[in-house]
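Dear all,

This email documents one entry for the complex benchmark we are building for the journal club exercise. For each entry we list the sequence lines for every component of the assembly. Then comes the predicted three-dimensional structure of the complex as a token string, followed by one or two observations. Please use this as the template for your own entries, and keep the labels exactly as they appear.
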Amino acid sequence: MKSVLDVTDLTGGYSQQQPVLHNLNFHVEQKEIVGLIGLNGAGKSTTIKHVLGLMEPIEGTIKVNENTIGEGPDRYRSQIAYIPETPVLYDELTLWEHLELTAMAYDINQAELKGRVEPLLKEFRMENKLKWYPNQFSKGMKQKVMIMCAFLVRPSLFVVDEPFVGLDPLGIQSFLDLIVQVKERGTGILLSTHILSTAERYCDRFIILHEGRILADGTLSEIQAKMSMPNAALDEIYVQITRGA
Amino acid sequence: MDVNTLWRERASSFWNMAIRYLRYIGNSGFLFSVYVGIILGSYYYGQVLKVLPEAFPAAEFVTILVFLFVSRGKIRTFLKVPDANFLLPIEEHFKPYLQKSLLYSFVMQAFNVLVLMLVLGPFYFNRIDSDRTVYFSSLLLILFLTGWNMFSKWEELRVPEGTKRKLLPVIRMVMLLLTLYALFKEAWLITAVLFIGLSLLYMGVYRPLSQKHTLKWERLIELEGNALMLFYRVANMFVDVPDISRKVCKRTWAAPLLKMLSGKKESVYGYMYTRAFIRSNDYFGIYVRLTLIGILLILVLPSGFLLWAVNLLVLYMTAIQLTTLWPHFDMKVWVDLYPVSKRERYDTFQRLLFKIMLSQVSLFSISSFLNHFSIIDTVIILISGFALIFVFTRVLLFKQLDKRFILTEMGR
């Protein structure tokens, strides 16, 4: 399978003197969900910021479909959709305007926008809230707006930062169903989360990040074999690895 | 999407908001004091020019003053936090937006510099050069410097944290200082050389940064947030600004003050308010600034009525400003759930304010004594200040707070 995201020897962080990420190597292929797993402060969000091109690597390269951000930020970024951990919305835009803005930014025309939005609105039960403003939304609803904006785009790479917090159970299920659908269409997904049981069920591979270093990566059975913990669940392995480190 | 329209919309929505606040400030009697200040100021300005000794380092003085204005380079972008999410894929299309922001920031900055130079005019003609041509060409060069500084700083913002990020502003500041000094010393040859140096520096060092580094969205958004917050904080001195957000400074060095202020028997509110006073937002900053202004005034004013009035005025201003500490925790739900009576909250706050104000009046009395060695002045400052503080914390504080927050339920 072709890889959509290639991270090579990435050392990164805000300060060059004190890097937070050390020599990360990983990739995400088409049609796969890769779980990025780590404690609070392990470097998951920093990794994601590097992938989005919001931060500059101190060393190493990041390629999305063989392009680096230096070769043209817009081409690089138009291949990525991102769902942030905390929803950030414009106070002065309605739900519909957020969707419209996203369509403009990703160059999606009105007809296509309408076609893509309808099933999304239905799935997340937000059809009658198109004219609502963010201050009328609960945290979960705001999260749904971000999710819908991201699914509106049909990128090659999906970057998702801790999507489950604040979503109701139906929302979580809808999100997971959509992720699987998107994956079947050929998208690569980088999913950062703490909810290990869900990750175990949906992710094809895992990257276990601890204090800015990759401690283990591979499929569940590969990691089980490496840790010589056959049949162990992801949470058990995870606790074992991070305690030992 | 048309980013030019976006910029215009955002700039005008900022100004609509700003004008609303400016109107409040205008209505608050502030404008009147500005007029009085200008009239008094221009009178004393002329007096000062007459009595200023020949040896006064005029060029150095003007250099530093102009440097403070030129080097600020405040960049307004009107970016919003969600931009780093929604607008990322059109970074390249975004150029006109950012160019507009830069131009706007330059015009605002240039206006400030122009006003400063206008005010400095009489001093300049009196002490540096009486030739108008020299003044106006210097003014032109200073505006060029303002632009150079702003555009260099803009490119600098792309550089990631590290040695380079620390070094570049230093180079910029040193170049600005040198050039301004050469300009006001009228060392024309050196000035010319420095200007060539500035251009080379921009073309060779600053300009290429945009090729090497990506745009730092988060940094720009933070910068914009700071600029906006500064505006809100100034406005907040005259009228309640609901949008003001809370920034926290550690101020580890002030930790001993925590103990002094909260007293021996710590109460919940004492604990919270002292920490908020020292660490949060700008309460402590306001206190320090007003105290410094007070000390300075007391050190220069002749003994007499004006001195005593300034003492009371600064004390009163500080007290009024610090009452904004009262609602600091109002949005935190759990504070209302603590099993502590509201009455105790008021009493603690009153005690804290009393202590803070007492420290200020003590500092003022000491400065007054150092200036005049007059026991009478010092005693008047101490006693009248103490009386003001007493009346304020016992009577006025309650009225002040009661106007904005309903306190009657405390049974007072």
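Observations: The radius of gyration of chain B is 25 Å. The mean pLDDT of chain B is 86.
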